[in-house]
Specification:
With about 280 residues, the chain is of the alpha+beta class. It is about 35% helix and about 25% strand. Strands 2, 5, 6, 7, 8, 9 and 10 form a seven-stranded mixed sheet that branches. It has a three-stranded antiparallel sheet with strand order 1-4-3, with no helix packed on it.
């Protein structure tokens, strides 16, 4: 029987019986996946970001807004910051985001995964400054923590690597994986975000990883125009982005998620109501 103690989460007691049985009948994250699509008007967001860059001389994008919003939403809706391990549901310690970036914008540039803790009390300007420094550091020639680990692993014979990976996943299942393996591993996070719009692509549904314990994957699509009918009945063209969510439904019900998606729409479509420059 898996243990109830882990370095990265607290076992959630007093769940409904329906919620408790889900990890036993839906054993994997991709067996439990639910897809959501959300289209958000962003004309106000682009005006806000232009004003922010002018006043602070800091580069900020819709990606920064989404990560800031994600911190607020997970703080307001803590059940989304849970994960399944060993057929049990845990409340994660802290809000952690994982996001991808290319070291070089060409065909040979490797994609890196970056993990950072988000403080929901951090103001938007401080978040932008912290992430800008983090991304610049990770894109440098300096080896990341993950690169260092993988370079050591791939010095081993190939026939050893597969059982080693199975051993790590089994230890994680029983809550025996030491914190030293978890704290810097990008696959142990609250959400993973991929900004496909930065490559000129639209959003796409992404699988969840069985390794680690990320229960939510978000992709951001490119900005585009759509014709809408506004509240006054006028037809007009509006700048939109599409967000696509892949969600492990074992951690929370659909109604709870729907309320969180509404908060995403509120913040991204009208950031000036939530952020003071």
């Amino acid at each position: 029987m898996p243990f109830q103690f882990r370095p990265d989460g607290t076992y959630v007691k007093n769940l409904s019986l329906t919620r408790r049985i889900m990890p036993f009948i839906m054993k994997g994250r991709n067996e439990s996946i639910v897809f959501f699509e959300q289209k958000i008007p962003v004309d106000n967001a682009w005006d806000f970001l232009a004003s922010f860059r002018e006043k602070t001389n800091q580069k900020a994008s819709i990606f920064h807004l989404l990560l800031w919003a994600g911190g607020q939403i997970l703080n307001e809706h803590p059940r989304l910051n849970r994960f399944v391990a060993g057929r049990r549901i845990f409340q994660r310690h802290g809000i952690w985001v994982c996001f991808s970036a290319k070291k070089k914008m060409d065909d040979t540039g490797p994609v890196i995964a970056i993990k950072r803790k988000i403080d929901p009390n951090l103001d938007f300007q401080s978040l932008v400054k912290t992430l800008t420094h983090t991304i610049a550091e990770e894109k440098s020639d300096k080896l990341s923590h993950t690169d260092k680990e993988l370079s050591l692993i791939f010095k081993l014979p190939a026939f050893i690597i597969s059982p080693m990976a199975r051993l790590l996943m089994k230890l994680d299942h029983f809550g025996l994986l030491p914190d030293i393996f978890i704290k810097d591993d990008p696959m142990f996070a609250s959400i993973m975000v991929a900004n496909l719009g930065s490559f000129g692509l639209d959003a796409a549904y992404h699988h969840l990883f069985e390794y680690g314990n990320i229960p939510i994957f978000i992709t951001i699509g490119k900005k585009h125009k759509e014709v809408v009918v506004d509240d006054s009945g006028e037809i007009r063209a509006v700048s939109m982005i599409t967000l696509k969510f892949s969600f492990d439904e074992r951690i929370a019900d659909g109604f709870y998620c729907l309320r969180a998606l509404g908060m995403f729409n509120d913040i991204l479509s009208n950031p000036e109501k939530f952020i003071t420059i």
